[in-house]
Amino acid sequence: MIRLNITAEGFSEERFVTDMLRPHLLGFGIYTEVRKVLTNRKLRKEEGLLATANSRMT
Q: Fewer Cβ in 10 A, N or C end of the chain?
């Protein structure tokens, strides 16, 4: 069996892999694993990780 790791930026990409690609590729013996990553764009949001860390420092 082949394992394919896919990195997704958001929820819709993660759902596409889970709902569409995974069942299709499984028929060819390819197991897919999808992981959603936190991007730099999301870190800049007011409620993001950096804003939370900065608010704790002040």
A: C
pLDDT in tens, 4-32: 999 998 889 999 999 999 999 999 999 99
Residue with tokens 């958001």: 10
Per the CB < 8 A criterion, the answer to whether 26 and 3 are in contact is no
Q: Give the E-state strand segments of the chain in sequence order.
A: 2-8, 30-36
Which amino acid would we find at residue 3?
Answer: R
Q: What is the pLDDT of residue 34?
A: 94
Distance between CA 6 and CA 24 in Å, rounded?
Answer: 15
| 6 CB burial (10 A radius; 0-12, 13-18, 19+) | middle
Q: How far apart are CA 35 and CA 3, in angstroms?
A: 13
